[in-house]
Design a protein that fits this description.
This protein is α/β, with parallel strands linked by helices and 699 residues long. The protein has 4 domains: 7-296, NAD(P)-binding Rossmann-like Domain (Rossmann fold), CATH 3.40.50; 299-464, Rossmann fold (3-Layer(aba) Sandwich), CATH 3.40.50; 499-576, 2-Layer Sandwich (Dna Ligase, domain 1), CATH 3.30.1490; 582-696, ATP-grasp fold, B domain (D-amino Acid Aminotransferase, Chain A, domain 1). The chain is 37% helix and 20% strand. The strands form 6 sheets. The protein has a 7-stranded mixed β-sheet with strand order 9-8-11-10-12-13-14, with helices on both faces. Strand 18 (419-423), helix 15 (427-435) and strand 19 (439-441) form a beta-alpha-beta unit. The longest helix is centred in the middle third of the chain and has 21 residues, at 444-464. The chain is flat, with a radius of gyration of 31 Å. The relative contact order is 0.07. InterPro entries: ATP-grasp (IPR011761), ATP_grasp_subdomain_1 (IPR013815), CoA-bd (IPR003781), NAD(P)-bd_dom_sf (IPR036291), Succ_CoA_lig_flav_dom (IPR032875), Succinyl-CoA_synth-like (IPR016102). This is ATP-grasp domain-containing protein. It comes from Novosphingobium malaysiense.
């Protein structure tokens, strides 16, 4: 049976409320009361066998007595009556049901079975199910409120361009309320609860297809259907929606980390970061940040870059904003000469720099203020966003009105520019300037964070336009790979490796060393020996043929002592002693939910102890690889410190990108890759994978 579209759930023309209460303040009566208050555009049919009317509307004894088949049935009955209600609705061909009742899969195994029975009954007709254990949904534009959200009692939202989807009903309700209080119009809300059918992914997918939605605000604790979730993110990204998504908690990875540095570093939270980043979603760390970013994104303006121009009436506030800008990766660049000259004429009493300190005198000369804002925000000034710090000026006696009037006069000039006002003012004043197109923040720190987030969303959008990344053919599945074999595979994938040969006798080892050049390194080579150092299986800096011959015998003996006879070895690997460079680690881990990820970090304590690494969902472009390199805290060690030359970052980025393409192509073939170390030398001198381990899935 084909499932019905979510249009029937979120754009219904008729709604039945099963178990509706005559008391609008009780949970079973709230949904009906909200829809009456909002003037729902369709038919409302309360179902209550004990009453002739409910909240002034004719009541029906059962769904069989309804004058038609409702698009949606809101089931507001106690849990023990829910199953029968679902079966009745499915039999009648109802489009969707909303179930608030609790005590299902979130409670115990018995509840899980009861939840499955609900779904089985719904599937017979293709009826959609929201819940159970949810707070429902709404469409503010049509006055449809299939929800028992208590916060709506304080006022219904305005239908704007923002949609909210939340796995948690309580969080979704609070988020919608806070957005309303922030002046953001929330058009749709979906809380999925146990998500036995409609989940966060399917809700995002539907919202991405709506022309009246520009921003999707989401919350989840985990994801059940990976393909549906990723497909929804892809659709939202392709549709140009701005997604502000909070992921909390941890999920099971099912990965054994014992054999891989990468597995222990690629924790679930980092994988979620990588997934959301790949599909252009901004991940906030707090509810306050999520609300602020959704508010800013709803204005529809994204900066082309990170350069921030600042105009302030207070030097102290200007300094605070500079600090916040630095914290969030914004550039407070110096004024261009021509801009400085124009501002000097406009503000002879000001300090002309960036920040431009106009001093409190500007408050009495609003024409100069308007001209200064216009000058600094003009694209010719070279800034991607402008912050205007007014402090408490709007609270001054009579000041709020004249200041707002001045800003409204300026609004047509700056409407297509990102201008944030940092000030405190009464709500009416804030609303007037917001409606004119300005962003308003009471705290300069919040303003910097929001502008930086918009810049991040802009960067994500720009990266999307770069196109798909071609992948190589996958390697065969099954079998173990030695270091020598792993390097051949990675070399074919585009990673540089040093010259090396596999010797199966002391004479072959000497011949290999003579060809490569001394000093050399000898390594035990076997697909069964994963960690060579544990058996003393590596000899460094061997200066001549005699040392190589003796070293070969030593390694064979050590392998035998560890239980590996010479016949079980693939051979002894001979390679040149690499010049000194900066050791990094490149890795791949195949996440059981989201697939291949690629990791980068500096070697040694930086990655093992300090956990200083960057991770992305594979594949990545060379541009993204450069971002990964610059993202780690220890990047200055690669970029040249205390007179040292920078490392060859281009070679490193190419290696990361090549490994990521290999990882994406082999998500079903491998479980992990460790390239440790990948040594990178000075700029222009390249780098090489000195050791490699590929774990291949068994057939």
């Amino acid at each position: 049976m084909d499932l019905k579209s979510l249009d029937v759930l979120l754009k219904p023309r008729s709604v039945a409320v099963i178990g509706a209460s005559d008391n609008p303040h009780r949970l079973p009566g709230m949904s009906l009361a909200y829809m009456k208050l909002a003037g729902f555009e369709g038919d409302l049919w309360p179902v209550n066998p004990k009453r002739e009317t409910v909240q002034g509307l004719k009541a029906y004894p059962s769904v069989d007595d309804l004058p038609g088949t409702p698009d949606v049935a809101i089931i507001a009955t106690p849990a023990h009556l829910v199953q029968q209600a679902v079966e009745d609705c499915s039999r009648l061909g109802v489009g969707a049901v909303v179930i608030f009742a609790v005590g299902y899969s979130e409670a115990n195994e018995e509840g899980r079975k009861a939840e499955q029975a609900l779904l089985d009954a719904a599937r017979k007709s293709g009826m959609r199910v929201l819940g159970p254990n949810c707070l429902g949904c709404f469409n503010a534009a049509t006055g449809y409120y299939g929800t028992i959200s208590i916060s709506l009692a304080s006022g219904l939202p305005t239908a704007g361009n923002v949609a909210v989807v939340s796995q948690s009903g309580a969080y979704g309700e609070q988020l919608a309320y806070l957005l309303k209080e922030r002046g953001v119009g929330v058009r749709y809300l979906v809380t999925t609860g146990n998500a036995c059918d409609v989940d966060v992914g399917s809700a995002i997918d539907w919202m991405a297809a709506q022309d009246d939605v520009d921003v999707i605000v989401g919350y989840a604790e985990g994801v059940g259907d990976r393909d549906r979730f990723v497909s929804a993110l892809e659709r939202a990204q392709a549709a140009g929606k701005q997604l502000v998504f909070m992921k909390v908690g941890q999920s099971e990875t099912g990965m054994a980390a014992a054999m891989s540095h990468t597995a222990s570093l690629a924790g679930d939270d980092k994988v979620w970061d990588a997934v959301l980043r790949k599909y252009g979603a901004y991940r906030p760390v707090s509810t306050e940040e999520q609300v602020d970013i959704a508010y800013a994104a709803s204005r529809g303006l994204l900066p082309a870059g990170r350069k921030l121009g600042i105009l302030t009436v207070s030097g102290g506030f200007g300094i605070q904003l500079c600090d916040a800008a630095d914290q969030y990766g914004l550039e407070v660049a110096p004024l261009r000469d021509e801009v400085a000259r124009e501002l000097t004429e406009l503000l002879p009493f000001g300090s002309i720099n960036n920040p431009v300190d106009a001093s409190g005198q500007i408050v009495g000369e609003l024409e100069r203020l308007k001209a200064s804002i216009a000058c600094l925000s003009d694209p010719a000034a070279g800034y991607d966003a402008t912050a205007v710090i007014l402090g408490s000026v709007p609270l001054g006696p009579g000041m709020g009105t004249v200041l707002v009037d001045a800003l409204l006069e300026l609004a047509p000039t700056v409407r297509d520019r990102l201008v944030a006002l940092c000030c405190v003012a009464d709500r009416e004043t804030v609303l007037r300037v917001e409606q004119a197109g300005y962003l308003v923040f009471a705290d300069v720190h919040d303003a910097a964070r929001a502008i930086a987030a918009l810049a991040t969303l802009s960067e994500y959008k720009s990266r999307q336009a770069s196109g798909a990344i071609a992948l190589p053919s996958p390697i065969p599945r099954g079998g173990k790979l030695s270091e020598f074999d792993a390097k051949r595979v990675l070399e074919a994938a585009g990673l540089p490796v040093p010259p090396e040969r596999l010797a199966r006798s002391a004479d072959e080892a000497v011949a290999a060393a003579d060809a490569i050049g001394y000093p050399v390194v000898l390594k035990v080579c076997s697909p069964d020996i994963l960690h060579k150092t544990e058996i003393g299986g590596i000899l460094l800096n061997l200066p001549d043929a005699s040392a190589v011959r003796e070293g070969y015998a030593t390694l064979v003996e050590r392998a035998a002592s560890a239980g590996f006879a010479e016949s079980a070895l693939q051979g002894i690997l001979v390679t040149g002693m690499a010049p000194r460079g900066t050791e990094t680690i490149l890795g791949v881990q195949v996440d059981p939910t989201f697939g291949s990820t690629v990791l980068f970090g500096l070697g040694g304590i930086h990655v093992e102890v300090m956990k200083d690494s960057a991770l992305r969902l594979a594949p990545v472009s060379e541009e993204e690889a450069h971002e990964m390199i610059r993202e780690i805290k220890s990047f200055p060690l690669l970029n040249g410190v205390r007179g040292s030359r920078p490392s060859d970052l281009d070679t490193l980025a190419r290696a990361i990108a090549s490994l990521s393409r290999f990882a994406a192509a082999n998500a079903d073939t491998i479980t992990s890759v460790d390239v440790n170390p990948f040594v990178v030398w000075e700029e222009g001198k390249g780098g090489a994978a000195l050791d490699a381990l590929i774990s291949v899935r068994e057939d």
